[in-house]
Amino acid sequence: MAKILLIEGENSKVIDKVKFTEEGKLQDYLEEYPSLIPLSEIVEGASALLCIGREVGAGQGAVDLLFIDKDGLLTVVETKLAKNPEARRTVIGQIIEYASYISQWATDDVYRIANQYLGANLDEVMGNLSEDFRSNIEQNLKNGKMRLIIAVDELIEPLRATVTFLNSFSTFDILLLQVSSFEESKIKKVLIPSLFGYATKTTTISPPRKRWDLERFLANTRERCEQETVDTITKLYDFTNSNADSINWGTGASLGSFTFRKLRHGTLVSIYTVYSDGSIQFNFGEMKGKEVKEEILESFRAKLNEIPNVMVPEEAISLGKFPYIMARVLTEAVNLKNFQNTVLALCQQIESRE
Asked: What does the alpha-carbon distance between residue 249 and residue 152 come to, in Å, rounded to a whole number?
């Protein structure tokens, strides 16, 4: 059985390796200590992982652990002990099936799961990242880009070979994580993680993302939307340009966006984001995270819902969500005017001392 030598000053002690008796214990360690997944060993500048779910429903099964990083990239972890027969072939099909199911999620699904698990708003826990965080989640899901990790207590060679092969020819990363446990005493343990299966992709690497501008954004909108919607979005941009304290352009790989931002006590707060696919996202999660009072947000929600075909749910405020509507509901001049007045009323309240 493997051993490690623990040296402390002039004293030394041999520590024996101990076997995990249940997969749940391995899950516990990974959930509590995400740094046990040493991504920095294979990815330069890899972002720290945040656990956002355990036993997350995915089709007919449940993902053991679900993580996310600041780039909006999801990491799915499935744990299997070497003694489990499923740790050979079955786990490969299992984790890919989960990935297939998750790739059909919307960004709101990720937020719902994370907020419920964390007991707080994901944006706040992540440190209120830019609006691109949501866009990155959306693009990663659409492109089937995620990280899959099979965590085991002992390396299984056929599984390592299969993982390496898949990792060479897929848009997602699939890795094998071995966590070895050594026990000095009942309260002092040593956990040693090792990653296997990393391989250079044979697929073409996407170029770095560029920030959108008005010309590129409108061109992309014309490709995706009918002329009425293009006209409405153009008017929304003009309104944003005239009334926002800042316009933030997104960096989505294929979907353009701009965000209306207003100063509140010296800090920029995002009100809404317009996308080149004709959708308008209301950033209640951002506003709640920047401590805009709930009664102000409720007034904003109620006034939005007075516009025909707009229905923003109450949970947008209570759960800090980012609901959206399609710009085509604002093609009527009166509806667009009501929308603009509602936004301006919110801005006045945000600028005040509330």
From this structure: 42
